[in-house]
């Protein structure tokens, strides 16, 4: 996988947790500002101390991810454009997966998209961004600067507009056979095992909620873990057409993810509204 430099993706760091909280808080309330006392309560749900949270918030202010403001003796932290950008990049990765996942269940035209980037230097920062976006769109590098996807997306044109490239669409033919080639290229066996692990992990989280009778605010770190577990897999999943992959563990995982997430978000929504 291409390494994507984004603050939100540093798993289990307080900064990652804080941005996750803002992401969910914004989704359920429409707000990007949280009073410090409430924010510390939310962070405490993850087993992080007030002192660790304050240190992280201070660093986030210096990094221009959040700004703080004192009003009427109370301190508020608000996301900056940079902070919002980090969250939007995270959400974009999930949205792109679901976009190609919806294509998986449509009738496929059997036309593969091949992109060859000409005189392309991977070392530059600008070109790294292009590679990261290609990967996030479900493309896989077949050979040096040659990328393959089963789907064409209009977004590709704007992504590649600053470089010289050749784009072709049509059938592919391989020496080892297309089925074996595609499954090896996209590491389908590895993805299958990851989805199976995700389904097992999700069952355990659901069992933990039942056994411990977890309520509302206690669901916040579980929602965080669920999102991470899911993202870690789907960022690598090209969501191949049903004509290539019929029965697929990813379908079960998406269904379980959506249902469980809706349950968790409902509880977290109540928590945010009751504590404020």
Our count of helices gives: 10
Strand order of the largest sheet: 5-6-4-7
Return the average pLDDT rounded to an integer.
92
Give the radius of gyration: 21 Å
Q: How would a textbook summarize the main sheet?
A: 4 strands, antiparallel
Query: Which secondary-structure class do the elements indicate?
Result: alpha+beta
**End-to-end distance:** 40 Å
Main attributes?
alpha+beta; globular; single chain; 276 residues; three-stranded antiparallel beta sheet
Q: How would the blueprint of this fold be written?
A:
Blueprint: H1 14-29, E1 33-35, H2 36-44, H3 50-62, E2 66-71, E3 74-79, H4 81-104, E4 112-118, H5 125-136, E5 140-143, E6 146-149, H6 155-159, E7 164-170, H7 178-185, H8 188-212, H9 220-234, H10 249-275
Antiparallel strand pairs: 1-3, 2-3, 4-6, 4-7, 5-6
Helix pairs in contact: 1-10, 8-9, 8-10, 9-10
In short, what is this structure?
This protein has 276 residues and is of the alpha+beta class.
């Amino acid at each position: 996988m291409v390494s994507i430099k984004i603050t939100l993706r540093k798993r289990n760091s307080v900064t990652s947790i804080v941005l996750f909280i803002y992401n969910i808080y914004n989704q359920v309330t429409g707000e990007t500002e949280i009073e410090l006392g409430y924010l510390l309560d939310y962070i405490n749900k993850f087993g992080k101390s007030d002192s660790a949270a304050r240190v992280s918030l201070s660093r986030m202010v210096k990094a221009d991810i959040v700004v703080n403001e004192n009003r009427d003796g109370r301190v508020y932290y608000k996301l900056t454009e940079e902070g919002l950008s980090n969250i939007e990049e995270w959400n974009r990765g999930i949205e792109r997966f679901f976009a190609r996942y919806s294509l998986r269940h449509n009738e496929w035209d059997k036309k593969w998209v091949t992109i060859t980037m000409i005189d392309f230097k991977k070392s530059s920062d600008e070109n790294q961004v292009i590679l990261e976006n290609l990967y996030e769109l479900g493309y896989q590098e077949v050979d040096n600067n040659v990328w393959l996807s089963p789907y064409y997306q209009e977004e590709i044109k704007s992504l590649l507009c600053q470089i010289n490239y050749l784009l072709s669409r049509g059938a592919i033919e391989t020496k080892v056979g297309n089925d074996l080639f595609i499954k090896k290229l996209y590491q389908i066996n590895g993805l299958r095992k990851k989805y199976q692990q995700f389904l097992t992990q999700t069952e355990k989280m659901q069992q933990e909620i039942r056994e411990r009778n977890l309520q509302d605010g206690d669901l916040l770190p579980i929602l965080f873990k669920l999102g991470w577990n899911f993202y870690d897999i789907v960022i690598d999943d090209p969501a191949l057409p049903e004509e290539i992959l019929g029965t697929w563990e990813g379908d079960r995982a998406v269904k379980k993810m959506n249902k469980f997430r809706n349950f968790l978000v409902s509880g977290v929504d109540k928590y945010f509204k009751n504590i404020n």
